[in-house]
Phenylalanine--tRNA ligase alpha subunit
Amino acid sequence: MQEELNKIVAGVREKAPQIATRAEFESYKATISGPKGSLTEVMKGMGKVPKEDKPAMGKLINEAKTAVTAEFKAVVERLEAAELAAKLGPDIDPSLPSPDLNRGTIHPIAQVRDEMVNLFRRIGFSVAEATEVETEHYCFDALNIPSDHPARDMQDSYYLPEELKVGNVSKHVDEKYLLRTHTSTVQIRTMLEEEPPIRIVAPGRCFRRDTPDATHSANFHQIEGLYVDKDVSLMDLKATLDHFVKTIFGPKAKTRLRPSFFPFTEPSFEMDFFSPDLGKLSNKWLEIMGCGMVDPEVFKAVNIDPDVYTGYAFGMGIERIAMILQGVDDIRYYYQNDVRFLKQFA
Ligand code: DAH
C-alpha cells in the first residue's frame, strides 16, 4: 500500500506541471481523486488493513492526500494566472503593487466599539441592534422616564415633524418620533422580542441637541448592556464591569460604584474607574458609565414578571472610552475626517 501511495504521489508530481488547460486538469484529477481514481481505490482498501496497522496507514494516506492537494492547487493557481494574463494582454502586469496609496483605515471610534463588543461577546453576550428613529414610547415611556423629564423637551432631543410629507401627500402621525437619545431603547425592543435569559450588548448611534464643544457632540455613540435571568444580582453586574475595565484599561485598573439615579434602574449607579497606567489621566477616578438593576416598572412595560426575573443594565459613551484610551482631548476630531488625525490610529 505504501509503495502504491508513493507511486501515485510521484506520478502527480511529474504530471501536474505539464497540465496546460482546465479540461486536461479535470480529467487528470478524476483519475487520481475521482470516484474511481487511484488514490480513492487505495483509501477504499483501508477496510481490509489489520486493525493494528490502521493508524500508520491512515497517516500515510493523509500525507499522500496533502501532497496531491498541494500539487492540484498549484496547477489551478498557475492556470488562473495564465487566464488573467491572457485577458489583460501583454501591457498590464497584475503583480505590480497598486498605485493607490490612500488606503482607508478603520475609524478610531469603530476600533474601540469593536474591541468592547468583542470582549462582551467572549463572556456570553450577543449583539442587538435597533433603529435610530424611535417613538417616545421606546425612548422614554417604556423606560419609566416621566413625561416632564427634560430629555423630552424639544430643546434637548431631535423630534421629527408631526406632519410627515411623502411626495404631495401630507400625513399626520399620532406617535411622536425622534432620533434616539440613548441606546437604552434596545433594552425594550429586545425584551419584547425575546424571552429571558437575555444577555445583550447594543452598540449604536445616538443624538442630542447639544452645543458642540470638546466633550459634547450632537451625534455620538453608546454601548448598552442588558442581562435578564433568574437570580441576577448586583454582584454579577460588579463582576462583569470589573472584567470590562481590567480588559480595556489594564489589570491594575479598579472600579467603584457610586449611588446615582436613572428612571429605568433601581438601585442606580455611576461607575468610575481608576488606573495607574493612563498617562495624564492616571490615578484619578474617571466616570465612564451609568448602570443598575433593571427597575420593575421597566419589566412590567415589556411583560416580564419582576417577581420571577431580575436583571442588570449599563450604558456608556464610546467616544468617552475612546478619548481616554487614545489620548484625544476634543471629541470633534472624531467627526472632522481629517486624514492626518485618522491615520494615527491605523
Ligand atoms: N441611558 C443612559 C444615558 O444615556 C445611560 C444608562 C444609565 C444606561 C444606566 C443604562 C443604565 O442601561 O442602567 O445617560
User: Anything to note?
Assistant: The radius of gyration is 30 Å. The mean pLDDT is 93.
